[in-house]
Design goal:
- The chain is of the alpha+beta class.
- The chain folds into two domains: 131 residues, Penicillin-binding protein 2a (Domain 2) (Alpha-Beta Complex), CATH 3.90.1310.10; 324 residues, Beta-lactamase, CATH 3.40.710.10.
- 35% of the residues lie in helices and 22% in strands.
- The strands form seven sheets. Strands 2, 3, 4, 5 and 10 form a five-stranded mixed sheet that branches. The protein has a five-stranded antiparallel sheet with strand order 12-11-21-20-19, with helices on both faces. A three-stranded antiparallel sheet has the order 1-8-9.
- Helix 14 crosses helix 19.
């Protein structure tokens, strides 16, 4: 019986404690499963934006779309500065993984293996390093196709200057990032640069761009800048000035050509020049636009304005005779000298012979405020307003501080400083019958005319200056066949420590044509000619003649001196007749 009871107890399989535990565990699993199902429905159906945003963060990214930089054009619409699409390749060293493509990558980038290793060094901590800038977009695309992790390509623009050296000093240049550094590229940076755009793209697991998704912001191209510069005249000025500086073995040279009726600068050349397409070879001495930013004592080319001031005072006129005997005069403790004794001269002869004594007597014979007032209204001692970076304003001391000797030397161009551009603007007043049209580099520049010199006095001085270009004047080599020319020479001793140099000169010529009704004004300056000659009439006047003759014909200006017989003049290598 006992055995039977034990057998019956063995057949009982239900254990209440174990059955309850199972049900509890099963319930937990069911609840967890329901929670997971609900979460999946919530994330994928009801509120899927979270995962979508997380996915986009991994695969979508915004890239910068560079804006096209505006062009710089000459007055006829010819491009002086343009931008072309290029690509740049960069690397994130922290992601970089050559994966066997390192040698090929270095070869396509034209980098040595050591250079590539240095740029991709993970220990540097850098996350952005350019491997190569401004390369062929097709080559950059092939590099991307290598699939090297951490290597990317981006679109950019590179600035090109079709005329190279010819207009470099005016146009200036940009840096590798397309930002203006010199010249008008810098002056009109905000106008030229434009606004970059933003585009959203889809990338794969290796961060390679797979698809363009949408444009977030379209790039806004920069605005073009149209200059008053005439490309043909600019080349002519550049060519002749370069030849003159080489022929005279000069340190440098500058030239400015203007339209006196509008104030437009048609050409501005300097030597030595530079090629803005080759940034690696740029030096400060070559980049500087000497015609606009350098100042010097202008010398005898200021004498026409001394004569104008004398005539405007009412104390001198065309019939006035000035005694320059014996060819020098004492002013205080100093002495003013002429090259020789010119005796008694009228105003025309004073300019023709360039008498320092005669001009000093005019300056000392009129109120100093009259002389200062004219020079000030002509623009000396102030910027012209062309908005060129670093433009010089020169120096014109207030007349209250003038001593007699300073009044005398100022009359023949010592004791003040000016740029070539300022002199050109002042001569434009004489050419424009006494009206000043402020200089401008823009074809659409707006200038306000200002009467500075009476009409008849301007015409009288122009007539006097024609004698300077005659056979008996100081600049017969400024003559142009078929046209009347009016102008003035200047030969200036350069200032050095302790005084003035005896062997360093500036040779200048400032003039206009046709003299009877001027359409063009030009100033030429040759700095430290060392080939033998140094007088302005010998080193600067011939360049004026060649450039002005070509400019008048290119601009279809009719000859006004056709009755003069045609003669052929031969010049030797030094420019002497």
């Amino acid at each position: 019986m006992i055995h039977q009871r034990l057998k019956d107890n063995a057949n009982k399989v239900v254990v209440p404690e174990l059955s309850g535990r199972r049900r509890f565990i099963l319930a937990c699993f069911m609840l967890a499963m329901c929670g997971l199902i609900w979460r999946a429905v919530d994330l994928q159906v009801l509120n899927n934006s979270f995962l979508q945003n997380r996915g986009d963060a991994v695969h979508l990214s915004n890239i910068k779309i560079p804006a096209y930089r505006g062009q710089i054009l000459d007055r006829d619409g010819h491009a002086l500065a343009i931008s072309a699409p290029v690509s740049s390749v960069w690397v994130n060293p922290q992601e970089f993984d050559a994966n066997g493509q390192g040698k090929k990558l270095a070869s396509m980038l034209e980098l040595g293996q050591k250079a590539l290793t240095k740029k991709t060094d993970k220990t540097s901590g850098r996350r952005f390093v350019y491997l190569r800038r401004h390369m062929d977009p097709q080559l950059a695309e092939r590099i991307e196709d290598l699939g090297v992790v951490g290597v990317y390509a981006q679109k950019e623009y590179r600035r090109f200057y079709p005329d190279g050296e010819v207009a470099a000093h005016v146009v200036g240049f940009t840096n590798v990032d397309g930002e203006g550094q010199e010249g008008l590229e810098l002056a009109y940076e905000s106008r030229l640069q434009g606004v970059s755009g933003v585009e959203q793209v889809l990338r794969d697991g290796k961060r390679r761009m797979v698809k363009h998704v949408e444009s977030v912001r379209e790039p806004v191209p920069g605005k073009d800048v149209k200059l008053s510069i005439d490309r043909r005249l600019q080349y002519l000025a550049y060519r002749e000035l370069k030849a003159a500086v080489a022929q005279q073995k000069a340190k440098s040279g500058s030239l400015v050509l203007m339209n006196p009726l509008t104030g437009e600068i048609l050409a501005a050349a300097n030597q030595p020049a530079f090629n803005p397409n080759e940034r690696s070879k740029l030096t400060a001495s070559r980049v500087r636009n000497r015609a606009f930013v350098d100042v010097f004592e202008p010398g005898s080319i200021m004498k026409p304005f001394t004569v104008a001031a004398g005539m405007m005072s009412g104390l001198f006129d065309t019939s006035t005779i000035i005694d320059t005997t014996p060819g020098y005069m004492k002013v205080g403790r100093s002495q003013v000298r002429d090259h020789r004794n010119y005796g008694k001269v009228d105003l025309a002869t004073l300019l023709l012979k360039s008498s320092n004594v005669g001009s000093s007597k005019i300056a000392l014979g009129i109120p100093p405020e009259g002389m200062w007032g004219l020079l000030n209204r002509l623009g000396f001692g102030a910027k012209t307003g062309i908005d060129f970076p670093g433009e010089a304003k020169g120096k014109l001391v207030g007349f209250e501080r003038w001593r007699p000797i300073e009044r005398a030397t100022l009359s023949f161009g010592y004791g003040l400083s000016s740029s070539v551009l300022q002199v050109a603007q002042a001569y434009s007043v004489l050419a424009n019958n006494g009206v000043l049209m402020p200089a401008t580099l823009l074809s659409d520049g707006v200038s306000e005319a200002e009467r500075v010199i009476p009409v008849e006095i301007s015409k009288s001085i122009r007539h006097m200056l024609q004698g300077v270009v005659s056979k008996v004047g100081t600049a017969p080599r400024a003559k142009i066949q078929g046209y009347t020319v009016a102008g003035k020479t200047g030969t200036v001793k350069k200032a050095v420590a302790g005084g003035y140099s005896d062997d360093k000169y500036l040779g200048l010529f400032a003039g206009m044509a046709p003299a009877k009704n001027p359409k063009l004004v030009m100033v030429v300056m040759i700095d430290e000619p060392s080939a033998g000659d140094y007088y302005g009439g010998l080193v600067a006047a011939p360049t004026f003649s060649r450039v002005m003759a070509g400019a008048l014909r290119l601009m279809n200006v009719a000859p006004d001196n056709v009755e003069e017989p045609v003669t052929l003049v031969a010049f030797n290598q030094r420019g002497a007749q």
